[in-house]
Amino acid sequence: MRGELLTAACRGVCRQGNVDDGAELHRRRGPAGIHEYRLTQFNRWGLESDAAVLQTSVGNPPAPPRSLTAAAAGCGAVTLSWQAPADGTVVSYRIYRSEAAGGTYQFLAGVGASTTSYTDRPLTPGQTYRYTVSAILDAGGSLVESAPSAEASVAVTCADPPAPVITTPAVAGQALHGRG
């Protein structure tokens, strides 16, 4: 695919020429570095095809959520909490978990924009879990995922239950004795 570079003065929808005979490439610049490319073909009768659309982020991703903490929350549970990114309109958050140092993070859960905490359970006692959170931001009608937050990790613990206390049965302070 051939194309011309856009100049810095181009605003809004820009038509790209010389893509290929009978084709047009348009680019629309959006906020937060989002660019939308549309490629359309024209047949010999001048009829236009459906557009192939690609959206991409140019530049740095939006700022991630801040101050992620992970704390053991009872037997087999971890509570995460974080703060919203410094800028941008958050639509939701995505929570990721890894069970190995340097391991791959797997998507765990998504929560709404007003939620800045999450409890993960059930978990294996004695296992260390690592978490990151990313924000999904509205970038002028396009949704963009932020970079991941700093990692927070925690070892899941369970306290042993207290030992049972065995007492001698009594009625009104008098010990009961069996009949033999």
Provide structural commentary.
- The protein is built from no helices and 14 strands.
- It folds into 2 domains: 13-57; 66-155, Immunoglobulins (Immunoglobulin-like, Sandwich), CATH 2.60.40.10.
- Helices cover 0% and strands 48% of the residues.
- It has strands at residues 13-20, 23-29, 34-41, 52-57, 66-72, 78-83, 89-98, 106-112, 117-120, 128-139, 142-145, 152-155, 170-171, 174-175.
- A hairpin with a 2-residue loop joins strand 10 and strand 11 (142-145).
- With 180 residues, it is mainly β.
- The termini are far apart.
- The protein is elongated and about 110 Å long.
Total strand segments: 14
Our count of domains comes out at: 2
Which band does the percent of strand residues land in?
A: over 45%
CATH superfamily of the largest domain: Immunoglobulins
Structural class: mainly beta
Unreliable residue runs: 1-20
Cα radius of gyration in angstroms:
29 Å
Question: How would you characterize the largest beta sheet?
Answer: 5 strands, antiparallel
Order of helices and strands: EEEEEEEEEEEEEE
Question: In one word, what is the shape?
Answer: elongated
Can you tell me the CATH topology of the largest domain?
Immunoglobulin-like
CATH class of the largest domain: Mainly Beta
What is the overall number of helices? 0
Tell me the helix content. under 10%
Provide mean pLDDT, rounded.
74
CATH architecture of the largest domain: Sandwich
